[in-house]
Write a structure and sequence with these properties.
Blueprint: H1 10-17, H2 21-41, H3 48-51, H4 55-65, H5 81-88, E1 105-107, E2 110-112
Antiparallel strand pairs: 1-2
């Protein structure tokens, strides 16, 4: 009556159903690449009222309106001599290597200079 009488051999079934890890990973990567392509083409136009209902955005907008957050920040930065030289493209004075320091040490009555 409408019953499928075809028989599948176990080898054919296993070959089609069980894929190797690399084959599954390749198929997964292809699907992900297609998904990313679709997401790149997606453009959503969201009304402002809907945006301010999201708590994170609402807090950011509220702080910005109350001048707690400014879009342009002005800070005073302490500039070192090396940074000033780098900005002005000036070479700093090179000094000779002072060598390794030597510390005098005394153990009992013996004095070690090096």
């Amino acid at each position: 009556m409408g019953v499928d009488t075809e028989e599948h051999s176990p080898a054919t079934f296993l070959d089609t159903q069980l894929l190797t890890k690399t084959e599954r990973a390749r198929q997964h990567d292809e699907q992900f690449a297609r998904f990313v392509d679709i997401m790149k083409k997606l453009y959503i136009d969201v009304p402002f009222v809907d945006v301010i209902q999201v708590p994170t955005y609402a807090k950011y907008i509220k702080d910005m309106m109350q001048n707690k957050k400014s879009l342009v920040s002005e800070e005073v930065v302490k500039v070192t001599k090396e940074l000033t030289a780098a900005i002005n493209d000036v070479a700093l004075e090179k000094k000779p290597d002072p060598g390794s320091p030597s510390i005098k040490c005394m153990i009992g009555t013996r004095i070690f200079d090096r």
